[in-house]
Automatic annotation (TrEMBL):
PROSITE patterns: ARF
Keyword Magnesium assigned: yes
Binding site for GTP: 23-30, 69, 126-129
Gene name tied to this protein: Arl15
Taxonomic source organism: Elachura formosa (spotted wren-babbler)
UniProt-annotated binding residues for Mg(2+): 30, 47
Protein name: ADP-ribosylation factor-like protein 15
UniProt keyword Metal-binding present: yes
């Protein structure tokens, strides 16, 4: 407040943080980022390669690299890890047992990756509104 009253200059720049968002196809990565950016939920298309979104908050900006989760794309995830300062891992808590096991394997692989193993992880169990959704205890 004081700065705005006495100094007519622009406000100080907000810090920016680079994050990577990963998870299997259909887990809700694109929907999550669209919601955080206040974009319309209509016409959301699965990411086939990668996309980058700047998610603005009052005190910071998150530059999020969302990586597609298809089988043929996951093997390239590690090429996009460099420079990341945090990880968002999205999983579909209502997915099949096979898909949940695949998601577990991908999460464990990311947790052990040299460029990610020291970074903060947010693990989001998405689709909790679906009848088949598992609890946090069941997802572990």
């Amino acid at each position: 407040c004081f700065r705005a009253l006495c100094c007519k200059g622009p406000p100080p720049p907000r810090p920016e943080y680079d994050l990577v968002c990963i998870g299997l196809s259909g887990s809700g990565k694109t929907s999550l980022l669209s919601q955080l950016c206040s974009e319309s939920p209509e016409n959301i298309v699965s990411t086939t390669g990668f996309s980058i979104k700047a998610v603005p908050f009052q005190n910071a900006i998150l530059n999020v690299k969302e990586l597609g989760g298809a089988d043929n794309i996951r093997k390239y995830w590690s090429r996009y890890y460099q420079g990341s300062q945090g990880v968002i891992f999205v999983l579909d808590s209502a997915s099949s047992e096979d898909d949940l096991e695949t998601a577990r394997n991908e999460l464990h692989s990311a947790l052990q990756h040299p460029q990610l193993c020291t970074l903060p992880f947010l693990i989001l169990a998405n689709h909790q509104d679906k009848p088949a959704a598992r609890s946090v205890q069941e997802v572990r």
